[in-house]
Amino acid sequence: MKRLWVIFLFFAFWMVPALAGAEESYSFDLAETEKKPYFAAGYVEFKPILFGLDHDAAFYKLRFYDDPQGQTISEVNGRMQLEGSYEKDIFRIYAKTNTDLKSSYSGESEKTTFYELYGSMKPSSDLKFDLGKKTMKWGKGYAWNPVAFVDRPKDPDDPETAMEGYILATADYIKSFNGPLQTFSFTPVLFPVYDHVNDNFGTKNKLNFAGRFYFLLYDTDIDLLFMTGESQSDRFGADFSRNITTNFEVHGEFAYIRNSRKNILNASGNMTSQEADALSYLIGIRHLTAFDLTTIIEYYHNGTGFSADEMKGFYSFVNRGYDIFNTTGNNAVLANAQKIANSGYGRTNAMEEYLYVRLSQKEPFDILYFTPALAWIMNTEDKSWSLTPELLYTGITNMELRLRSGFISGARNSEFGEKQNDYRVEFRMGYYF
User: Structure pTM?
Assistant: First the structure.
């Protein structure tokens, strides 16, 4: 049944545009220009991927030690996102669902969830209340957002993809002024963590409070942010964004986390908990040339990340467990290593120092609807990196055709050098309706 869903998504890309074209009408209806109380839209995506494996890498050994693979593996992904809203008087309801389908060497899977589902009340032009599941989108960075205290972390390899929100209650109070301070807003957030309510965020059965103060001051966007409670340690932050010229923007973020807890693997293979205040920050620029070349450069210091020596200890632990398994068939060490990876060592960009560069050129050589791009992420501590070239074509109405590949390079015991893949190639076919 799940395989049929993947096939359905594939054919939807070809059938929906054709049906839309067949039903075009050139009549004019004045009612169509009036604002409707409802909104509905959707997106379907078909994405096959080919992975080239690195059999000597720690994360390959950790994942495939009991199920060896060849030089490559492939998978087919499908995605469907539906969103809609309804407004009446001062009330609004918004919903966004996401369904992911996957068919790979390990079988087939399907997962459907609400990315967002909340109700709004706007009693006046400067005050609004929201209640439900919502993505807050705090921070000014493109690839990372250290001040996004109430959002899930971005995937820096695909930072523009939609993310699942959290269940919360929030308000927005906005005020405009004449003078250097043009706009002020305050956004308080109540953030519960209980069983089945944000239960993967931190310590359960706690109610947390967060907030953001926004200032448009001297043409500079400034945020002051905080989060306090017992689910996670208290944290405070600030960000800014300013256009130096029309086509040149500078942005930054700074986060201070009190008593940040980090689980460290010691020499005997046991985990010890370490607490210390942590500083994370990001500084970046965005520039657009007269010939439509967009450049984004960001430097990110992750104060909660692992050092190179701490990561080397983890890789050594995995390799020792792999040798024991091949010699005795005992996987106890590798099973422990998997738990340790899930506790933090296996997360995306788990270390401390990163540089991000993205170049995208709109319609080079006057090729309409064509945008090539190149993204590079470097771990500046161990000098390993990933490179992602991309070709995007949008010449078909409401459709995106995107070819991406990813190449990684790094020595043994480096972050990208120990990833399970040497490269990947993916093709995305997406349709908006």
Answer: 0.90
